[in-house]
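Lecture notes, continued. The same structure-token format from the folding unit now serves as the input rather than the output. Read the line below as a description of shape only.
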């Protein structure tokens, strides 16, 4: 029972990191209709900036400064590059953001190198928060969960209880009316894109030292966040949260318990004695298919409910 609860806690941690990463992309897509292929690259920049800042002034200044820097970079990208591409349609946007992701990855390798950097959990947060049946859970992991929940509540309040949130929501469906009321729509788009990138940067700050900070981290998580927003529903913040938690918990449970499928395949006469591909099928375990489970969930969702869990339109 303790291992199950520990695995669920780890799944919640991973799921909330995915949510922080996907929430920025959800915001950008909802507001601008842009599927930003470079979004995970801003997550990577957040981790690397946090590493460089924390080695000089500590972790907590990096927690504030790194997302701001990433957000400013994102706003400048929208203002001086993406805005000019936007008029040519979604294909041009996808090509631009794909190229931007490659450019950021090459710049990271040029500045910080091609190997992992020693971005570690701050010493003050390595203590044990609680012990569950002999298993330790670090203070830092609890901190990450609390920050992630706080971000979700802050976004929820931002969009439902503030003037800024109302302007953003109105710009989604009635941009001409918002512009006619005197709001600078282009500035709103720029700030929204920058804010979404800052959220990705914040996820990088608190997740880079857990998942590892290295040049391939953007590629590893880039496809997962698109799975999250499709399963949750395009443009749905609540859907992104639900999908992130589902993927995080399922992934951790599959790796922790490593259940063998041999007894199930034996019901159909498939055993290791048959040799060839049947031998491989009989040896399948949940941990061996854990990396593809999110994509299997994606396929099932597209078959059963193409608009996702809480989406309002089909993919």
């Amino acid at each position: 029972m303790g291992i199950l609860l520990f695995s669920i806690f780890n799944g919640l941690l991973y799921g909330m990191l995915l949510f922080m990463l996907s929430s920025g992309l959800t915001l950008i897509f909802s507001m601008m209709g842009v599927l930003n292929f470079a979004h995970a690259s801003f997550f990577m920049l957040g981790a690397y900036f946090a590493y460089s800042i924390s080695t000089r002034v500590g972790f907590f200044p990096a927690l504030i400064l790194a997302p701001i820097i990433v957000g400013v970079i994102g706003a400048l990208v929208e203002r001086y590059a993406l805005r000019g591409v936007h008029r040519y349609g979604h294909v041009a946007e996808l090509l631009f953001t794909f190229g931007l992701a490659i450019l950021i990855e090459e710049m990271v390798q040029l500045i910080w190198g091609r190997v992992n950097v020693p971005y570690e959990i701050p010493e003050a947060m390595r203590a044990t928060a609680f012990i569950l049946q002999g298993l330790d859970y670090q203070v830092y992991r609890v901190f990450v969960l609390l920050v992630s929940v706080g971000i979700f509540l802050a976004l929820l309040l931002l969009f439902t209880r503030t003037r800024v949130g109302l302007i953003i929501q109105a710009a989604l469906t009635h941009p001409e009316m918002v512009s006619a009321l005197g709001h600078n729509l282009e500035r709103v788009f720029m700030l929204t894109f920058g804010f979404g990138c800052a959220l990705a940067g914040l996820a990088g700050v608190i997740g880079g030292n857990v998942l590892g900070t290295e040049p391939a981290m953007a590629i590893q998580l880039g496809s997962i966040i698109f799975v999250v927003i499709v399963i949750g529903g395009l443009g749905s913040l609540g859907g992104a949260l639900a999908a992130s938690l589902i993927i995080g918990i399922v992934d951790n449970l599959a790796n922790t318990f490593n259940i063998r499928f041999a007894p199930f395949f034996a019901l159909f006469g498939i055993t290791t004695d048959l040799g060839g591909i049947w031998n491989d099928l009989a040896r399948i375990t949940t941990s061996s298919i854990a990396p593809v489970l999110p994509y299997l969930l994606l396929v099932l969702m597209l078959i059963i409910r193409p608009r996702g869990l809480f989406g309002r339109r089909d993919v």
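Point for the exam: The chain has one domain: 2-222.
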